[in-house]
Every structure is written in C-alpha cells, then in structure tokens.
Amino acid sequence: MVPTAHALPPTPIPPASGSTTPSPSPSPSTSSTATPTPSASPTVPRPPACAFADVTTVLPSGAATLAVLDTRYRLPRGWRPAALVELQPGKRLQPQAARAWQQMRSAAHAAGLRLALISAYRSETYQHTVFNRSAKRNGRAHALRYVARPGHSEHQLGLTVDLGTAAGVALEAEPVAHPKTRAQRTAVWLAANAARFGWVRSYPKGMQARTCYASEPWHWRYVGPSLAAAQQRQRTTLREFLWTQRFPAPAAAVVP
After folding, report:
1. Span 55-83+94-245: which CATH code?
2. Which of 33, 134, 223, 252 is the most buried (most CB within 10 A)?
3. What is the full DSSP assignment across 159-209?
4. pTM over 0.85
C-alpha cells in the first residue's frame, strides 16, 4: 500500500529584490509524531463469477475439506478419497463425515424426525451417468443448472449427502417460519442444527449467481463443526466461505 502523504509546513517565500520589508519568520512548531492510521478494511476475497470451465481446484494440504468445486473448478482427474466407510449398500462417506452423519441422524430421530440418506459418495465415472441421465430426461440446459459435470461434483469428495424424509424421497422443502408438513419441519431442524454436526447446505434458495447451481434443499456438505460455525457467522454461501479459507484476506495494514 502507498504510504499516506503528510502535510508539510509552507515554505517561506523570499522577499523580492530590493524590498525593505522582511518576511516574517515562520512560527515555531512543536515537534510531534503522527499517530498511525489504519488503512481501509481489506476487501474480502470472492470467487470468480460462475462460468463453465475445467480448472483443477486446490486441495489445501492434500485434504478435500476446503476444496472449492463449482462449474469452473474440478477435482484432479481420477481423484478419489483415501478411505470410505459404507453406511448402507452403495452409500459411502469419508470416515469423519460418516460419523457426523450418524450423529446428526440420531439427533433428528430424538427430535421426532427421520433423515434418510438418498445419495453419498459418487465416483467421477458414476457422475457421468448421473449427468447424462439428467440431460437425456430434462435437456442439457436443465442438467447444467442442477447437476454437476463429472469431476465437479461435491459428492466425489465423499463428504456430501443428499437427504430425504424417507427412502427415495428427497427433501425439497425450504425452512419456513411456521412449518406444517414433516418436510418443512425437517428443513427447519436442519437449518437450526446441521452446523453443530459440521454440515452446511451448499446451494441455498435464491443464490444461484453465487453458488453456480439452483437451490437444492437436500444437498449438504460436511466441513466440520468449527468451519460450519464460522460459515454461519459470515452469513455467506459455502462456496464464498471456502474461497476465503483458500485465499484469506490480508490483515488491515497500518500506515505511518
């Protein structure tokens, strides 16, 4: 940052040649040290605008927890988690996410709600199938809006789940002030409690320009309780929050 310029005392103007009126001497000033002034608050880093590309994302320290995945950023080709735990036939998660899922499901059950696991880890190969099936059924434009292309899916991390209120019934309700249906009550409970177990909703309603995908009430990603709480405090989308973790804003500079 360019240092702030300080005001200097005016330079005395020498008298004109032949003038008999001397210039007044400048008033003496008391020497003092200027108080450092903090600069303007640093700009919070934001991810680039949503666009379709195939840029390999960064895996901080080789871990997938902070990986930014969207329409632009993808995992390295052929990437897969080092370890997966099978929760149900065909449904696997990384160990820490598996434990967190079981804890959250038990807590929801204690609150009188049922959380069903609709989908979990997907390989890059299987994501090809999911995307192509959606494109064939609903058209490519619809698929690009709702389904990640192979390599771009958060499901490939082994840290993401699609939730439902019963087997095969995806959660499509939004949290509302006065829930009436079981799905609405489940949505309200998740909004209030999921972060305690480390889960964050990836694609909130009305945020497509910032998340790159349409709203998905059923899609939740595990980042751990501390990061989930921090994301809630920031009141931003998960994509934007992960970007700040990848490229943290510099501390406010102090200029003399």
Report:
1. 3.30.1380.10
2. 223
3. -EEEEEEETTEE--PPP-SS--SHHHHHHHHHHHHGGGGTEEESS-TT-HH
4. no
